[in-house]
Amino acid sequence: MAGTKIQAAEHTVGEIFTDDYHFTIPRYQRPYAWTTEQAGEMFDDLLAASRAKDSLTEADPYFLGSIVLVKEEKQALAEVVDGQQRLTTLTVLLSVLRDYVSEPFADSLEKRIFQKGDPIKQTADQPRLRLRDQDQGFFEKYVQERSGNGALSSLANVSPDSRLRLVENALLLKARIAELEMAQRERLVSFIDQHTYLVVVSTADFESAYRIFTVLNERGLDLTHTDILKSEIIGSIPDIDQDAYTNKWVQEEDDLGRNDFGDLFSHIRMVYAKTKARESILKEFRASVLQKVPDGKKFIDDVLVPFSDAFEVVTRSGYAGGPDAEAINRLLGWLNQLGNTDWIPPAIGCFSRPTADSASLLRFLTDLERLAGSMLVRRVDITRRVERYGRVLDWMENDRDLYSNESPLQLSAVEQAETLGKLDAEIYTVLRVRLYVLQRLDSALSDGGASYDHYPSISVEHVLPQNPAADSGWTTAFTAQERAYWVHRLANLVLLSKRKNSQAGNLEFEAKKTKYFEKTSWAPFVLTSQVAASDVWTPAILEERQETLLKVFGDLWRLEAAAA
Fold first, then answer.
1. Which of 101, 129, 281, 464 shows the greatest Cβ crowding within 10 Å of its Cβ?
2. Torsions phi, psi of 441, nearest 5?
3. Helices 258-273 and 225-235 meet at what angle, rounded to 10?
4. Please, is 120 exposed, middle or buried when counting C-beta atoms within 10 Å of its C-beta (0-12, 13-18, 19+)?
5. In the Cβ-directed half-sphere of 323, how many Cα atoms lie within 13 Å?
6. Average pLDDT of the chain?
């Protein structure tokens, strides 16, 4: 292995999807897992980069990351050790674009997706990327084959998750591309092909390739962007003051920890830039922040320290500054459960203001959690979330009224209606949303004071089972159509400890209630306790309960106007 040759070079996407490479995803790799959020983010970034200059001849190169391959020199076969998600999503994107461009472009894209057999080279017709054996037939039929793309929207009950992700991402990209004009689509194709780069690292044996993958992905204590910025900022301070300001910097880093301190700089960049990052954090931080606050001492005193203190309070729900502290920390707790951090820049922007008092913080957080929760429920993607929070930051900076109807902190009538519509639809099937929604609802039913930290684990359980036995009472109380309608909706869902979840299963209603309410060392969830008030579980009960629970959310997030 010591003599193994390692090759690394930048290649455009157009150079990668050629006869020089025949990519295969080996069996040991995890399934395709990118969600619509990641696929949408890649698309939005590529589209923005393709529009950045007046013409493609002036376009800056766009770096899409690296891939690690097991590949013999001068051989096309390339086993993908790292990079499956990017290569697969790129193939989905090119396959979808093929249906939205002129025939010459479509024919050219076809050559990037499929290799045409050549009898002289002794190559056969084959896709340029082959997924794991379990998924390749589906991938080729519905994504790579042009004829299959049109059937994607009609597919139902797609499983396993790897195939579902392929369908969801393809449909998302179709919707995004359909919004563009033909010239924009074809410009995007050319930009991806000629100006989008991957670093291809290849070696002939798996051990070397895996070692490279590990080195590329390990998080060691190498120099970070904060180390480099520290050197530049402290270095600009007069020698007599450097020790004092170095101590201030180190204190903030120690308080947050190295990882959180690094994240803080990304959030500070967002506060100043108010847009999604397109280039390296170093380059953008210098341009967005340090150009506005070039004095090192002023940066540390007026930016780093107050934002660091605010970040610590916000991410650890640790406010202790007034009569509304308990309510403020509850809202911070909910925000920290969202599963994303895009809301942090406006939050630290608010908390870092010297004039911020308990009442103003509570009012701001109430509306920030409302906006963030609504965007979670409506499945707003990361690009549009960041755009929205950027507008909030702009209004904050310009001291505009954040509580006026047109403020970006507020929900429009359309957004309120859409939020209610999503809450009224199937919640259980939306994995990243359901637990937040059920806990938020349970908390509202307990007057906002419920805490979930002491539960060992929490799961979402159906009252009406997903798959009741054919001879059970469930099949007589509900028609098949009624079961299909209600089973995954809000009214039919409750919270349980995981230990109980496995016990309740498909029991009849009376037996299931007993399992829900056996004595435990903690109080039952309010949402779950309400089920005990019903002697039966029928479509009529569910309809009434659904209306009641939606009203609770309407009151909580002020959705009444949209509900009318």
1. 129
2. -65, -45
3. 70
4. exposed
5. 2
6. 88
Q: Which two tokens stand for residue 447?
A: 């007057």
What number of H helices and E strands is found in the chain?
28, 10
Beta bridge partners of 489: 426
CB atoms within 10 A of CB 286: 16
Which H helix or E strand runs over 101? none
Alpha helices in 83-205 (DSSP H): 84-97, 103-113, 133-139, 146-149, 161-178, 182-195
Q: Is the pLDDT of residue 304 over 90?
A: yes
The Cα 244–Cα 531 span in angstroms is 61
Domain boundaries, the chain: 6-217, 225-413, 423-563
Whether residue 521 has pLDDT greater than 80: no
Q: Look up tokens 């380059």; give the residue.
A: 283
**In one letter, which amino acid is 517?**
F
Give every CB contact of residue 154 below 8 A, 6+ residues apart in sequence. Answer: none
Q: Are 155 and 142 a contacting pair, CB within 8 Å? A: yes
Rounded CA separation 515/455 (Å): 17
Global pTM exceeds 0.85:
no
DSSP characters for 19-41?
Answer: TT-EEE--TTSPPP---HHHHHH
Rounded distance between C-alpha atoms, residue 520 and residue 539, angstroms: 30
Tell me which amino acid residue 407 is: S
Q: How far apart, in whole angstroms, are the C-alpha atoms of residue 422 and residue 433?
A: 10
